[in-house]
Design a protein that fits this description.
Length: 411
């Protein structure tokens, strides 16, 4: 089965593009976080980074979903990648102080560029998910999603690690040149994927198309439940935005240590995702989903109270293992339960629920850290995650009892 997925040449190009793009955006995320904290020395400013990316991502998501479902999906994804490439070039120029007049306004310009990366996110998340559904057949969805997540996690490990070490040893300019090179490779890889037919849309008015994805999600309780569970878990349980504070002020490990901390969740997630490529979670799926999110919350609590670098890395790695199970189950649910003509819009709703919740969660983390202190804010987030799991298990009983194997069998 695994071999059949990789016998698909276009899937290999898709995975290659995702790999290099992931490395680039995770490198960029690490460097931006460190730069912003160096400039401001304020945890709240790290939260503002998330807010400036989340607002345009959410604002464009519904429109991008309609565009993805009415245009050639590869071209939409290429547009999103190209926009991110332009943003990276702009960050390189600003960070390198080529134009001296920009130096006094660097933080505001960085926020402005991040705004446009949010627009890119609003397009590339639904476009990538919908394009994957056109590249592989339905029987290959669970393993294709597992491999897709696995490759993303490899990039997510490489990105923070490469970003931290390159920035620590060679500085800002070389780091951004590396980022730009990786995004360029991703763009070239996408170009080798053949054109796909546009989905056949009904004759609904534009407003109905814009809201179609939301209506579909709210009608499908299993999809709604999985999105809601991850939305609030990521919103409250994410500690990523505050890692520069932990690396600089609490663990005292600098940018190299920050790269390791950022990579740690992806190491755990990668190991789990590779395991799930051979053992997809199709039995007891709902129970595994709730258990995984609860485990994630417990790991965040462990990270918050740890004052030891190695224990902190372990806690983050374990959180990544649990998060990987949740991500793979949720993405498989979206692929299996969503008809092709709706995948762009449903993926756009998913990006509002899940993708942007990372950035909103970053804002929440920064605000909570300012009000409560860094460590108490992370403890608060871990506790809230466990409360969300408990309440969601009662609010969405069909999700808790779900078995993907039954759906694949046509039940």
């Amino acid at each position: 089965m695994t071999g059949k997925v990789f016998d698909n040449t276009e899937f290999r190009y898709f995975i290659t593009a995702r790999f290099f793009f992931t490395i680039a955006i995770l490198m960029q995320s690490v460097i931006i976080g460190w730069q912003v904290y160096e400039i401001t020395k304020d945890a709240f400013s790290l939260g503002m980074v998330g807010l400036f990316e989340a607002v345009p991502s959410i604002a464009t998501a519904l429109v991008s979903g309609v565009i993805v479902d009415s245009r050639e999906r590869k071209k939409v994804l290429l547009f999103a990648y190209a926009l991110m490439l332009l943003c990276s070039v702009s960050l390189f120029i600003v960070s390198s102080d080529f134009i001296s007049a920009l130096a006094n306004h660097k933080i505001y310009i960085i926020y402005g560029i991040i705004f446009f990366t949010g627009i890119s996110r609003g397009f590339y998340m639904p476009a990538a998910q919908a394009l994957l559904g056109q590249i592989v057949d339905k029987d290959s969805y669970p393993r294709a999603v597992s491999w897709n997540v696995s490759v993303w996690q490899v990039g997510a490990i490489s990105g923070p690690a490469i970003g931290g070490f390159v920035y620590g040893f060679f500085g800002t300019g070389v780091t951004y040149v590396t980022i730009i090179s990786f995004i360029s490779v991703a763009v070239l890889s996408l170009m080798f994927i053949g054109s796909k037919p546009r989905p056949v849309l009904d004759s609904q008015p534009m407003l109905s198309r814009l809201t179609g994805g939301i209506k579909f999600v709210f009608q499908k309780k299993i999809i709604l439940g999985s999105m809601t569970l991850d939305l609030f878990a990521v919103l409250f349980g994410g500690a990523t935005a505050l890692l520069p504070v932990f690396a600089s002020d609490i663990l005292d490990v600098g940018p190299k240590g920050l790269g390791i901390l950022r990579a740690a969740p992806s190491v755990g997630a990668l190991l789990t995702a590779f395991y799930l490529t051979k053992h997809p979670p199709v039995k007891g799926t709902g129970k595994k989903l709730f258990s995984a999110v609860a485990g994630f919350g417990i790991c965040i609590l462990l990270f918050a109270v740890s004052g030891n670098f190695y224990l902190s890395v372990l806690a983050l790695a374990l959180s990544g293992m649990f998060d990987s199970v949740s991500v793979i189950i949720r993405q498989t649910i979206l692929q299996i339960f969503t008809p092709d003509e709706m995948k762009g819009r449903v993926a756009a709703v998913n990006s509002i629920f899940i993708g942007s919740s990372n950035e909103i969660g970053a804002f929440e983390s920064g605000l909570a850290a300012k009000l409560l202190g860094t460590i108490p804010s992370v403890i608060f987030g871990g506790i809230m995650t466990l409360i969300i799991v408990f309440s969601s298990s009662f609010a969405f009983p069909s999700l808790r009892k779900m078995e993907l194997k039954e759906k694949e069998s046509g039940i």
